[in-house]
Write a structure and sequence with these properties.
The structure is a single chain. With about 475 residues, this protein is mainly alpha-helical. It contains 24 helices and six strands. It has helices at about 5-15, 20-30, 35-50, 50-60, 65-80, 85-95, 100-115, 120-130, 135-150, 155-160, 170-180, 185-195, 205-215, 220-230, 240-250, 255-265, 270-280, 285-295, 300-315, 315-330, 360-375, 390-400, 405-415, 430-445, and strands at about 340-345, 345-350, 420-425, 450, 455-460, 465. A six-stranded mixed beta sheet has the order 2-1-3-4-5-6, with helices on one face.
C-alpha cells in the first residue's frame, strides 16, 4: 500500500474516532519506511489522540527528519502533558544540530509554563535570544504567561513593557498573570491602561479580570466588570459565569451564585456546577451540594470527591461512604495530589507519603525536624481536614506527609539558607499545609512560593500574599 495512502487512511481513522483501527493498520505494515511527509502526518495524527508512544516509535524509526518532525513531537508531548519528554526531545534536537524555529519555542515556552520550571524557562528564553528568533505577539504572550506561571511576575512585567502591545493576547497574558498572583488591583489598573491605549478587550480579558476579583473576594468589582462586558458587545460565556459563581460562592453568597446559574443564557455545564459544588464545600453546605450533584449528568472524579468531602466536613460518615461506594462501582478514581520542585535544572516529583526518592531518609529527617519545630511555635494540625473516620493520631500522620511538605523538605535539604523555595502542585493546597508553610517561612526566615492549581501563594515572615483567602 502506498505510503501517502496509508498515512491518509490513518488520519481518517483517527478523525472518525477509530484510533484502534489506525493502530492496527500501523502494526500490520511490515516495514515503517514512510517518506518524510507521510511520517509527519502520522505523528501529528497519533499525538492528537494522546497516543504519544506510538508517535514516538514512528519518529524514532524515521531515517530523515525536518523541523516539522521535531516540532510535531515537542508540541505533541506538551499538548499531552508530558513536558519533561518534550524538553528531552528538544535537547536531542539541539545535539543533532537541528535548528529550532519560532514554532519550536512556542511549544517549549508553553511546556515550561505548565511545568513551572524556573531554570528551564530562563534557559529556553536565553536560547530564543541566541537563535535570534523574532519575538512576535504570539511568542511575547507566551513568554509573559511562562514567567508568570514560573512565579517571576516581575520578569513577566518587564517583557510586557518591552514588546509591541497592539494585540489583545499580550494584554490578556499579563492580566491573567497578575490574577494568578492575587494582584487583582494591578490587573484592574492594567485593564484601564489597555482601554486608554485603544486596545479593545475580548472575552478572555474579562475571564482574567473576574478571576482576579475572585481570588481577592472583590465582589462589587466583579459584578461591575461582569456587567461591563455588554458595553463591548461581549456576551457572557460559560467561563464568565463560572468565575462569577466562584467569586460569589467563595465569599459565602451561595444563594446569589445559585441564582446566576439558574439565570444563565445557556445550559450550565459540569464546570459551572463544579465551581458551585466547590463553594458548597468551602461553606460546608451539604444540602446545596446535593442540588449541584443532582444537576450534573455525567459525574467525574472531582464531583464525587467534593460531595464526599462535604459530607465528611459535616461528620456525615455514612453519606460519605455511600458516595465512595458509588465511585468504586463506577470505576472512578480520585486524582492523586503531587508536587514538584526544580533543583539545579532537575524536576523532583513527590506524592503524599512518597518514599520513592533516592534521598528519602534525609528528606523525612528534615520534615520531621520541621514538624517538631512548628509545634514548638504553637502550630496545631487541622485534623478536621482529614476526611476519614479515624483517630486523631492517624489524622495527624496523614497531614504530616502531604506532597508539598515533602517537596519543601527536599528544597530545604538542597538549598542554601535564605534562598527562596519554589514548589508547584497539581491540586489546590489544603488549609493545613497553608498554615504550616506560614510558620515554616517565619522560623526559617525563608520565602516559600507554592503554585497550586488555582493561584500562587508567597509565604514570608509567617504571612501569605493570598491573605488566607483561597
Amino acid at each position: 500500500m502506498h505510503q501517502t495512502l496509508i498515512s491518509s487512511l490513518i488520519s481518517v481513522y483517527i478523525s472518525c474516532g477509530c484510533s484502534n483501527l489506525a493502530s492496527q493498520l500501523l502494526k500490520e505494515i511490515p516495514c515503517w519506511d514512510f517518506d518524510l511527509i507521510s511520517a509527519n502526518v502520522i505523528i501529528v495524527a497519533f499525538m492528537k489522540i494522546g497516543e504519544s508512544d506510538i508517535a514516538k516509535k514512528v519518529f524514532d524509526d524515521m531515517p530523515i527528519r525536518d523541523v516539522v518532525s521535531w516540532n510535531s513531537m515537542i508540541g505533541g508531548f506538551v499538548k499531552n502533558g508530558r513536558f519533561e519528554e518534550a524538553l528531552r526531545v528538544f535537547q536531542q534536537m539541539l545535539s543533532l544540530n537541528n535548528e529550532p524555529d519560532a514554532f519550536t519555542f512556542a511549544s517549549l515556552i508553553k511546556g515550561c509554563a505548565q511545568l513551572g520550571g524556573r531554570d528551564h524557562a530562563q534557559w529556553i528564553h536565553a536560547l530564543l535570544i541566541e537563535k535570534q528568533i523574532a519575538i512576535n505577539y504570539i511568542l511575547g504572550s507566551a513568554l509573559i504567561d511562562m514567567y508568570s506561571k514560573c512565579g517571576r511576575i516581575e520578569t513577566a512585567k518587564e517583557i510586557f513593557e518591552t514588546i509591541q502591545r497592539n494585540y489583545v493576547s499580550v494584554w490578556n497574558a499579563m492580566i491573567n498573570g497578575l490574577a494568578v498572583h492575587g494582584l487583582a488591583l494591578d490587573a484592574i489598573a492594567l485593564f484601564s491602561r489597555m482601554v486608554l491605549e485603544k486596545v479593545s478587550p475580548d472575552c478572555i480579558t474579562f475571564v482574567g479580570i473576574l478571576t482576579a476579583c475572585s481570588h481577592c473576594g472583590l465582589i462589587e468589582l466583579g459584578r461591575k466588570y461582569f456587567d461591563l462586558m455588554s458595553s463591548y458587545a461581549i456576551q457572557p460565556q460559560l467561563e464568565h459565569y463560572g468565575a462569577m459563581v466562584d467569586l460569589l460562592g467563595r465569599a459565602g453568597h451561595l444563594d446569589e451564585a445559585y441564582a446566576i446559574v439558574q439565570e444563565m443564557s445557556m445550559e450550565p455545564n459540569v464546570v459551572i456546577w463544579m465551581a458551585f459544588l466547590s463553594a458548597c464545600r468551602t461553606q460546608k453546605n451539604s444540602h446545596m451540594g446535593e442540588v449541584a450533584i443532582n444537576k450534573i449528568e455525567t459525574l467525574k472524579s472531582g464531583d464525587y470527591v467534593l460531595l464526599s468531602n462535604i459530607y465528611c466536613s459535616a461528620n456525615k460518615w455514612d453519606s460519605a461512604e455511600r458516595v465512595r461506594d458509588t465511585m468504586k462501582k463506577n470505576g472512578v478514581r480520585k486524582n492523586s495530589g503531587k508536587s514538584w520542585i526544580e533543583m539545579a535544572g532537575v524536576i523532583h516529583q513527590f506524592k503524599a507519603g512518597d518514599k520513592s526518592h533516592l534521598e528519602r531518609e534525609a528528606i523525612y529527617k528534615v520534615l520531621e525536624g520541621l514538624i517538631r519545630r512548628t509545634k514548638m511555635e504553637g502550630f496545631i494540625p487541622t485534623k478536621e481536614l482529614v476526611l476519614m473516620d479515624v483517630s486523631d493520631e492517624e489524622k495527624e500522620e496523614n497531614l504530616n506527609y502531604h506532597s508539598e511538605k515533602l517537596a519543601l523538605a527536599y528544597g530545604i535539604l538542597k538549598s542554601s539558607p535564605g534562598t527562596a523555595i519554589h514548589i508547584t502542585k497539581n491540586l489546590r493546597t489544603c488549609l493545613d499545609c497553608h498554615c504550616w508553610m506560614k510558620v515554616v517561612s517565619k522560623i526559617l526566615y525563608r520565602v516559600i512560593v507554592v503554585r497550586d492549581r488555582i493561584r500562587f501563594h508567597r509565604f514570608e515572615g509567617g504571612v501569605c500574599t493570598c491573605g488566607d483567602y483561597f
